[in-house]
Structure to design on (618 residues):
């Protein structure tokens, strides 16, 4: 199957110091990253803060300018410098979902206005009551949400509404940046169910999280990022069962699990204990 | 609630903290309902539940930190080292905050003063409570920073909070909370905002301090993985009430409350990728009438019986210090987890 979205040799650096003079050196946030995802598949990206996983998503959707490398959507290179009209298919087809759902919903607007505006921007604009209801139905909500504002919803409901907004354009790819990290586990499971359904509809996901358990359940492929590089990539289950890189193994060992009680603390103590050489000095 | 219906380890030691029927209201809204438990020295107890279940309010009410203009705190008894604590938050023994108890808040960045060096913020504990001069207090601060494993602590005491990463700021807060070797450490989601490797470090650190100082730890978390790995005992809260309590292994392996079972079933388990992640349907109730004449969990409950909608269940005491608030707990216990 051909990839719906791919990045090839992507490099990006954030300038540090000398922002105004432009003489600053760049800290490498993405270092030769090449990844791809097929329709109906989930590419999971795991890594710690600063590993470049959010930067990757932001660069793909065009929020970071000045990258090098190629972003391909349905085989064609995306030109983020091109006029919006020329990028319309990409903009509608690749939608982003953030950790904080409030960030993608205008607090002053009713859900009806937010979703109508999103529908109006879709490739085949249609924003009747029927379409709005269908959209809410897709995320497990109903028309009673339409005339309320974001402040009237709980975190889990807001994330559903943010997903509904993203679905308005009928995207083929959803880029999710820690979409369940701010939610309670019972609500997280509801949202993962919803993603599972969208996946079966044939939508592709790039799913960024620091929670390997979540990726173990939703991802087909996992890429591990560390300091801007992809250090390991492989089928989700294989990568979790037999990690090839020490860094991946360390992330797995540090995940709190419901087995081997006390192993988490033991492992942390071993890692923190001074090496024999340090202890002797 | 009778004296037996308390969450207490079978240990013969006198409890460090004993709380009976603690309730918190905001105006007419009941937020925490008649919570009773004991904390033993040297043990870690986890308080688990969804956002809004009243976990943080319970902790802050014990510490006497709630704003009395907003919250009304009541109860029948609360003692710390055998000494009575008032519910109004006013009558706390001298040195209660800092010397007897330490408190670590969830968000490390907002808990530190950005205009003061990290060393001075820790040193203040020694200046105020121990009457130390600034120089020796800074020496103690460096020792504490070293103890929470900040590399090159002697130099880092002159840094400001913004020069520290999130995990390091959280360690600074822990250093401040345990600086005076308190008997009780209350940690409210101390690792939620952190990377997993840093989380493991912080949990190991808290566990070490607990052993060294025989400190009791009350850790608030919504992560059952963290609970399973670190805590001796667990209390599960739902809509302001304790619904289950007991030893960690008993709760995680054969929980008797449908909500506890639901929470565990909703965890994506790294060790069992074939086990489906099962969501608890619906939303937690709003606080107004959540326990009025029915069980607050019954609208979301898969074990629901007619009785559950007709009356609110009382807490039942079972063997081994276990407690459960559910009419149907026998059915839950018999069902495979």
């Amino acid at each position: 199957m051909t990839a719906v979205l791919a990045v090839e040799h992507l490099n990006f650096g954030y300038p540090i110091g000398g922002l105004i003079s432009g003489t600053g050196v760049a800290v490498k946030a993405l270092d030769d990253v090449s990844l791809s995802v097929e329709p109906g598949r989930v590419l999971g990206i795991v890594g710690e803060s600063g590993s470049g996983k959010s930067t990757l998503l932001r660069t793909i959707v065009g929020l970071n300018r000045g990258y090098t490398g190629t972003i391909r959507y349905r085989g064609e290179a995306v030109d983020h410098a091109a006029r919006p009209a020329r990028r319309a298919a990409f903009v509608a087809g690749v939608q982003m979902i953030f950790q904080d759902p409030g960030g993608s919903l205008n607090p002053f607007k009713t859900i009806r206005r937010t979703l109508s505006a999103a529908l109006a921007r879709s490739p085949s604009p249609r924003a009747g009551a029927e379409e709005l209801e269908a959209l809410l139905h897709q995320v497990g909500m109903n028309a009673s949400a339409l005339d309320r504002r974001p402040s009237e919803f709980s975190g889990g409901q807001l994330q559903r509404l943010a997903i509904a907004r993203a679905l308005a354009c009928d995207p083929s790819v959803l880029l999710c940046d820690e979409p369940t990290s701010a939610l309670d586990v019972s609500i997280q499971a509801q949202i993962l169910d919803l993603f599972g359904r969208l996946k079966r509809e044939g939508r592709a996901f790039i799913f960024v999280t620091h929670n390997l358990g979540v990726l173990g359940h939703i991802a087909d492929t996992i890429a591990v990022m560390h300091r801007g590089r992809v250090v390991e990539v492989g089928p989700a289950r294989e990568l979790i069962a037999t990690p090839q890189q020490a860094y991946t193994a360390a992330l797995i060992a540090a995940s709190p699990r419901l087995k081997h009680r006390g192993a988490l603390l033991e492992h942390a103590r071993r890692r923190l204990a001074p090496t024999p050489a340090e202890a002797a000095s | 609630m009778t004296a037996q219906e308390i969450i207490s380890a079978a240990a013969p030691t006198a409890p460090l903290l004993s709380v009976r029927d603690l309730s918190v209201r905001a105006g007419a809204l009941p937020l925490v309902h008649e919570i009773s438990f004991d904390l033993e020295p040297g043990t870690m107890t986890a308080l688990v539940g969804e956002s809004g279940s009243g976990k943080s309010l319970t902790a802050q009410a014990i510490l006497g930190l709630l704003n009395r203009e907003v919250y009304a705190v009541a109860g029948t008894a609360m003692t710390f080292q055998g000494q009575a604590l008032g519910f109004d938050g006013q009558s706390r023994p001298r040195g209660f905050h800092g010397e007897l108890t330490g408190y670590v808040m969830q968000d490390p960045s907002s808990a530190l003063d950005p205009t003061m060096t990290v060393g001075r913020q820790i040193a203040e504990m020694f200046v105020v409570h121990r009457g130390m001069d600034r120089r020796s207090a800074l020496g103690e601060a460096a020792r504490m920073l070293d103890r929470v494993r900040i590399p090159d602590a002697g130099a880092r005491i002159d840094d400001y909070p913004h020069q520290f990463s999130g995990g390091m700021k959280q360690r600074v807060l822990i250093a401040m909370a345990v600086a005076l070797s308190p008997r009780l450490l209350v940690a409210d989601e101390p690792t939620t905002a952190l990377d997993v490797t840093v989380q493991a470090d912080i949990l190991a650190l808290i566990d070490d301090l607990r052993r060294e100082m025989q400190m009791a730890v009350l850790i608030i978390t919504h992560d059952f993985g963290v609970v399973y790995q670190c805590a001796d005992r667990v209390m599960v809260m739902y809509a302001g009430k304790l619904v289950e309590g007991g030893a960690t292994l008993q709760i995680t392996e054969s929980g008797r409350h449908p909500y506890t079972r639901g929470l565990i079933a909703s965890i994506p388990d790294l060790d069992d990728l074939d086990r489906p992640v099962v969501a608890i349907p619906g939303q937690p109730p709003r606080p107004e009438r959540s326990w009025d004449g029915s069980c607050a969990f019954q609208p979301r409950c898969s074990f629901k019986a007619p009785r559950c909608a007709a009356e609110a269940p009382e807490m039942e005491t079972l063997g081994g210090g276990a407690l459960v608030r559910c009419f149907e707990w026998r059915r839950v216990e018999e069902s495979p987890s």
Residues 196-213 of chain B form the longest helix (18 residues). The CA atoms of residues 295 and 312 of chain B lie 5 Å apart. Confidence is low (pLDDT under 50) at residues 1-6 of chain B.
